[in-house]
Design a protein that fits this description.
Strand content: 25-35%
Order of helices and strands: EEHHEHEEEHHHEEHE
Largest sheet: 4 strands, antiparallel
Structural class: alpha+beta
Shape: globular
Strand order of the largest sheet: 1-2-4-3
Number of strands: 9
Oligomer: single chain
């Protein structure tokens, strides 16, 4: 499969197409089709992108020309008020991973691109802009694991809970985007790269074939 991104001044759309083989995914017609679907997704409402007759027509054409089953797996559109900020994006050279970042305030296109590249490469993978944005199910799973680990070590419950809270603070620093060491300069955090004049509002990191 392949991911693709389309942007305007007021919106950005990210999509994923899937097919049966990597051979087809690298085919120029499939690459062009992915970009066309991304462009069409800019016309959608904000949020999850529904399949339209125009998107269906692109997918039908790809199935006919490649002889493989191909599908529109998903799409999402982010929007913002005109002039309030900017979007950045990065698509990895193999077309398997793409990132879109939405920012408000004053921030350069190059800085946004570098932040997108950080999100692509960072280990562990960022799960939210800040600790408050990390999905509740991820937080609960980690907290439960840490409590079980502390209790198994024979610590009294009160001490175990304090250990867990300290561990969770470190956990948030590891997976909250703004708190992560910047991959291109680990002496700085991502929030230092963003600077005081801008705010990261949201980001999407999509990888071909990941479980939703």
């Amino acid at each position: 499969g392949r991911v693709a991104v389309a942007r305007s001044r007021e919106a950005a759309a990210i999509i994923e197409l899937r097919t049966e083989t990597d051979f087809t995914a690298k085919n120029e017609k499939f690459v062009n089709a992915a970009q066309k679907v991304a462009d069409l997704s800019l016309e959608a409402n904000s949020g999850a992108v529904a399949t339209t007759p125009a998107i269906t027509a692109v997918m039908d054409e790809i199935r006919i020309t490649t002889g493989e089953n191909a599908s529109f797996a998903r799409g999402h559109k982010l929007v913002q008020d005109p002039g309030s900020g900017a979007f950045g994006h990065y698509v990895h050279h193999d077309g398997k991973t793409a990132v879109v970042v939405q920012a408000e305030g004053s921030i350069s296109d190059e800085t946004l691109r570098q932040i997108c590249m950080h999100i692509t490469a960072a280990v562990p993978r960022p799960q939210g802009v800040s600790a408050n944005d990390v999905p509740a199910n991820i937080v609960e799973k980690e907290r439960k694991f840490r409590i079980e680990q502390a209790m198994e070590s024979g610590k009294p419950k009160e001490i175990a809970e304090k250990m867990v809270e300290g561990g969770m603070r470190k956990f948030f620093e590891e997976i909250a985007l703004l708190e992560q060491p910047f991959v291109m300069d680990p002496t700085k955090k991502v929030k230092d790269i963003v600077g005081p004049k801008a705010t990261i509002v949201a980001f999407l990191r999509w990888q071909v074939g990941e479980q939703l």
